[in-house]
Design a protein that fits this description.
The protein is α/β, with parallel strands linked by helices and 350 residues long. The chain is built from 10 helices and 10 strands. The chain has 2 domains: 178 residues, no CATH class; 146 residues, Trna Endonuclease, Chain: A, domain 1 (3-Layer(aba) Sandwich), CATH 3.40.1350.10. A 5-stranded mixed beta sheet has the order 3-1-2-5-4. A 5-stranded mixed beta sheet has the order 6-7-8-9-10, with helices on both faces. Helix 9 links the parallel strand 9 and strand 10. Helix 1 packs parallel to helix 4. The protein is elongated and about 75 Å long.
Amino acid sequence: MNIFANKILEYFKTLDSSLENLSKMQEKKITGLPSWALSYRDIYLGIWDNENSFIIKAIPNENLAQDNLTIIYPKNDLELNKICAPWSAPFSFSSGAEEGAIQIGDLSVEGGDNPFDEPISLLKGLFGVYTKNHFDKIFNINQAKRDAFNMWNSALNKFPQKGDSFIGTALVIFLKFKFLIRRKAFLERRIHRYINSYRFILLPQHKNCFFEKKLFLGKDYRIADFILEREKGMPALLIELESPSNKLFRKNGEITAEANHAKHQIAEWVKFIEQYPENRKVEMDFLNGKKQRMVIMGRGMEHLDKMIDSKYSDTTLWTYELFLREAKERLNSIISEQCKIIGINSPKEF
């Protein structure tokens, strides 16, 4: 791999690691970042033979476990346009890049009828055109740190996708969550905080949410990740979140030891609630009734039938992918119903 490719990979690696550090304890602001930040990307690097013109395209790809870089040496306008697509080439192959740099990204495009359709519904990613001079100025470790600083502080001071519709904001939350559960630096607590920040979009429908709630039994206590109070007549929901890296099921469909441990943790919560009445007083009096249990851990949808069947057991078992799919379907159903109430044919009319 040539020196230019190494510079790009090091730039994105430094950008992401800087943002990981800056975002600790403030996960809610992550959705204000560009799509190519804190993501794994398909990166395309176009290099002219004279090494004085460069095109870079970085598209986030939820299926990657690391950045994937492809080097292309265009020879004519047709090959140039292929590198730039779906963006348009800002110059001809023969002229090359003018002195300076052009950099754009995250453009909205038309999608399907479901407002949460992806990825075709959004043109996500970074597109840039650079001369050799500007390439060296932009793609280096120090600039990556400066860019991370500027990105993060911009995110801190405005709501994600400022000026966008509620649907657009929700979609950003869904997309960023999908990337976060694949990053090793985002352990359970960081994912917990992100979910709590957007609990009314990501969690099952509820009236009140109690995050990291202490449950006592004498001098002993346990911390419940999420306790949801739902509408009157519906049982409370106790949710234990484990790492996305821990598998929920073995290849043969049996639940793993980690999943059994998570089930045991919720069983302890229930024991504490039932045996110590103080846990069920004042705002927590809804815990006097029936309680449902849910464990979320691991990735993938390979054992979807097992996850669906688990709702008939003492504990519902979901992966993070199913958790996200259910959140999308739930919100889409709510929005569609609201559209009917106010006489809108489709959410896309907003």
